[in-house]
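User: Batch of two.

Assistant: Item 1 of 2:
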Amino acid sequence: MTPSLKLAQRLALGIPAVLLAGAYLSEYGFGLYPCEMCWWQRYAHFAAVLLALVSTVARPRALWIALAALAILVSGLIGAFHAGVEYGWWEGFTTCTSAVGGAGGDPLAAIMNAPMVRCDVAQWTLAGISLAGFNAIISIASALMIFALLGNGRGARA
């Protein structure tokens, strides 16, 4: 296996694993519970970890690593969309961003049926960037780096 392919494989396994560890640390260590779109980002990272693990035993390795990078990219794109919803740049899905109340109806029922964690409110930010924003930045950059590494080792078979 070429050094580029080996590094791409390590990144494809390590980046989503570290991001998932951070997500669970923020959830169980700091009480930042995930909304629906947060879960979508996690699902893509779970898929990336699984695909990267498959690349350790199945050939062609580059294909499995590329699929893992694609899953990382999908998580980043979902994160970018989620961050845009949090910043108010565009509307999210109503199941994720529905406001309590509305015209008519029982207010108590509206409260009881409201999502526990809203997707349009950033629970935590650093320098104005939400967790979804950080996931978007890290995931998209990582996926592009993995694709570039795979392109560097294109001539070698693994």
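Item 2 of 2:
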Amino acid sequence: MNAHGIVHKYGDNVDTDVIIPARYLNTSDHKELASHCMEDIDKEFIHKVKAGDIMVAHNNFGCGSSREHAPIAIKASGIACVIAATFARIFYRNAINIGLPILECREAAERIENGDEVSIDFDTGVITNVTKGETYQAQPFPDFIKDIMNKGGLINSIKVK
């Protein structure tokens, strides 16, 4: 599994209320959630994002409430992966549960800039900044988590007998 896209960069402590404001939590429609993704921090995000793009942030990405709406909104907006120096614990688990690939890599979070072109090899954890000609090493997911991601989330990976 790989990803390749343009970066949308954010700072520290991007919380779930910024990712998807609470006023939109009255719907479970993924496309509706995506249409409001990041609007309180970046009004143009939804107009700029293209399928396959990459989101990069610094420390404590996804802090705040435990709502699964946040990673759902990001994934439904077209983002192929979120890279951050650190993630809030509950966001990290929710992202895996819904099949949103995420990677922790401090060097990538610090060096990658908004608008850079980035490719990711999920099998090795290598993040390549095509724009700068740099590579960064993230810890790749173990096979069982890659399987969850490849199937689009935890619910899709459960086999009912």
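Residues 34 and 76 are 5 Å apart (CA to CA).
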